[in-house]
Amino acid sequence: MTHRFDPTSLREYDIRGVVGKTLSTDDARAIGRTFATIVRRAGGTRVAVGRDGRISSPAMETALVEGLLASGVDVIRTGMGPTPQLYWAEAELEVDGGIQITGSHNPAEYNGFKMVLQHLPFFGEDIQKLGRMAAEGDWEEGQGEVADADIVDDYVGRLMAGYSGGAYRIGWDAGNGAAGPVIEKLTKLLPGEHHLLFTEVDGNFPNHHPDPTEEKNLVHLKALVAEKGLDFGVAFDGDGDRIGAIDGKGRVIWGDQILSILAEPVLRELPGATIIADVKASQALYDRIAELGGQPLMWKTGHSLIKTKMKETHAPLAGEMSGHIFFAHEFYGFDDAQYAAVRLIRAVHMIGKSMNEIKDAMPVMVNTPEMRFQVDESRKFAVIDEVLDRLETEGADVNRTDGARVTTPDGWWLLRASNTQDVLVARAEAKDQAALDRLLAQIDAQLAASGLERGPQAGH
Which end of the chain is more exposed for a tag (fewer CB within 10 A), N or C? Predict the structure, then answer.
C-alpha cells in the first residue's frame, strides 16, 4: 500500500485542504499510518488525537485513528476542543505525540491536521518527509488500542491555575469555533461579569468567519461591548489558537498591541527577558519592550518558527501580528488563545488602568492592513532576493530576518514571501498618511522593478 497526497495540502506548518477536493479520509488514514510509524521509530507508543467543530472532523478523526492503530500506536481521543487543548494533552498526558484535526480559521469546506511530536512542533521538512514515506508505503504494521479521555475540565483548570486578576465586565466571541465549550466553562470560574457570543460549535460558521484579525469579523463583539458598556472584548479563531481584542470603545487592539500589554507584567517579574515578535509587528511594540526593560527580538512569521526560536532564546513570551500568543512564562510555550485571554485580564489588572486608558496611551501609527499579491511560486523567493540586492546597492537600512523590512525616517515597510501560499505579503507603517504614501511608493517601485504590481486590493 502506498498513498499520494495532493501536493498543495502538505504545507509549511500543517496539512490542510478542501475536503473532497484536496483532502480526503484516505489522506487522514495515510497520515495516521505515517505519523504512527514516525512515533514508533522515535521510540514512542501513544498519540493523543483531538478535533475541531467542523462538519468533516468526525469522519477525518475515524480515518486518522484507524491509520494510527494499524501502524501499532495506541490512541487517546481527547474529543472536540480547541487546538491548544490538544497541545496541553500532548504536554501533560503520557503520550509521545499529538494530532489535532482542524481547518484553523479557513472557511467551512476546509480541514487539516496540526501535529506535535515529543513536545516539539512537527513542520516544514517533517511534513515533506511524511509525504514521501506515505508515497513509498513505508509503514510499520501493528494493532494499537484506542481509549477516550475527557480532559476539558482539567484543561480549563490549568488555564485558571494561579489566577490573580481583577473582576471585569468582558465580552467573549467564540465565533462558533471549537473554543466555545472551553470559554463557557472558563467564564464560570473567572470573577467579573461575562457576556458570551456564538459559543455553540457550528462548523457552518453561521454568524461570521472565525478570524479575529479581520476587523469585519469583530462587528458583533463591538455591538455587544457598546450595548452593555463592557470594559473590553476578546475573540477567537476557529480552533482557538489565535486571539483578537477590542477595548471598551470598540477600538481594535491588534496582535502586536496585545503583546505589548502582556509583556508588562512578564518584564516586571523577569527584567531583561527576551520578548519575540514577528517581522510584521509595529516598531512601537519593539520600542515598548525596550522601554519596559526587555530585549525585543524580531523573528520570522510562523508559529512553528517562533516556538523553535523561543526554546533557543529562553524567551518567556512571544507573539505574532496574527494573534498567536506564546507563553513559556508559567506555561508550556505553545500558542493558546484561551490562556492569552486569561493573561490579558491579569495584565490589565496589574497595570492598574482601564483597557481604554491603556489603548489611549499607545502611539498612534498609520499603517496598512496586510497587502497580498499573487506571484508565480517559482518567482516568489526570487523577487525578494532581487529586492534585497537592489536595497543593498542603495545602502538602505534593511532587516533580512524574513524578507525585507526597510526602515526610513518615514517609518518602515515590509515585503516577504508567504510560507503557505503563492503570494507576496507587504505592510507599511508611518507617523502620518503622507509618510505612509511615500513608503507605499517605495514598495510599488520595488515590485515594478521586478515586473510585478500591487493588485486591486491596494489602498487602505
Answer: N
Q: Confidence class of residue 420 from pLDDT cuts 50, 70 and 90?
A: confident
The model's pTM is 0.95
Q: What digits encode the pLDDT tens for the residues 221-231?
A: 999 999 999 99
Within a domain: 1: no
Q: How far is the C-alpha of 423 from the C-alpha of 416, rounded, in Å?
A: 9
Range of the domain at 385: 366-449
Cα angle at 215 between 210 and 219, to 5 degrees? 80
Is residue 125 assigned to a domain? Answer: yes
For residues 169 and 106, membership in a common domain is answered with: no
Question: 373 pairs with which residues across the strands?
Answer: 424
Number of domains in the chain: 3
Active-site residue list: 104
Q: How many residues does the chain have?
A: 460
Is 460 contained in some domain?
no
Shared domain check, 290 and 176 = yes
Q: From residue 253, how far is each of 156, 232, 235, 246, 248 by CA, in Å?
A: 25, 10, 11, 5, 11
DSSP 8-state class, residue 364: P
Question: What tens digit of pLDDT does each residue of 288-342 get?
Answer: 999 999 999 999 998 889 999 999 999 999 999 999 999 999 999 999 999 999 9
pLDDT in tens, 150-160: 999 999 999 99
Task: Assign 84 to helix, strand or coil.
Answer: helix
